[in-house]
Write a structure and sequence with these properties.
Elements (H helix, E strand, L loop, with lengths): L2 H7 L2 E2 L21 H25 L3 E8 L5 H8 L8 E5 L5 H4 L5 H4 L8 E5 L8 H4 L3 H4 L11 H18 L2 E9 L2 H13 L9 H7 L2 H15 L6 E5 L3 H18 L9 H15 L1
Parallel strand pairs: 2-4, 2-5, 3-4, 5-6
Antiparallel strand pairs: 1-6
The structure holds adenosine-5'-triphosphate and magnesium ion (MG).
Amino acid sequence: MTKAGRFARRFRVDDGRRFRLKHVDPRGTHGIASKEEASAWLKKGVERLAELQEKLYADDRWGLLLIFQAMDAAGKDGAIKHVMSGINPQGCQVYSFKAPSAEELDHDFLWRTTRCLPERGRIGIFNRSYYEEVLVVRVHTELLTFQRIPEPLVTERIWGERFEDIVSFERHLHRNGILVRKFFLHVSKAEQRRRFLQRLEEPEKNWKFAPADVRERQHWNAYMRAYEDMVRHTATPQAPWYVVPADHKWFTRLVVAAAIVDALEELDLNFPRMDDKKRKELQAARRLLKG
Ligand code: ATP
Ligand code: MG
């Protein structure tokens, strides 16, 4: 296993049954002393990622789905921006999922994300995802009413049923060559407060501030319980969760980059091999060009 793989695996949950959120310290930096040290590593990771993505695209068989979930201001957008910075934009698709539209509410809860799944050869990024269905909807159960699910189907078992359906769906993706890697950026309540205050105090950050985000903070403990339960029920070897300390943005980005490099390294990708016929065609083209 590569160094990136060993590093990322410390945060990887393959089997959620023993997972406890309190065992992950949001402030953790696991021996990396400074932002500067992390930057050097991140640069290497981003370069490696660009090479691997080109092979993924050329090979055109596997796809990679990256899912990001977190509380507000945990740094999802920044992590996506920095980690994917070296990648050819044509090989990558990013989708953000907000409160569902009327059309989306007319369908089952996997419908809107299914339409955005990455093609073979591509990396797809979900900034929030169907996991909101066991997070925000679980914390605010009144949201279920808008979903107009027939009454007999809405019981206290609904969250367990959603976990089951998500696990089956991700198994289906895995069996079809779409790798799934999920990131929960775990920020502390104190650090979120600091970042919100920064958004209020610095004029160029004001646009990022949403009053509703402060209201959501009041449900912090309910969210943490929902996140923990989500990881416990949906972390599998085929679709692991990475629970990433997120109080230091530079550390979060490093773990995310390492995990993606690890996923792609595992595929052992190669550029497509040329057979004899193809090689002869290339030689003929070369002769033609040289005159
Ligand atoms: P972010 O906060 O990720 O940077 P944003 O602030 O640009 O994104 P918002 O307008 O806050 O986006 O939209 C995200 C909101 O949509 C979140 O509060 C999230 O909980 C909510 N949301 C996402 N999916 C669902 C869903 N399936 N049901 C209800 N609410 C959802
Ligand atoms: Mg928001």
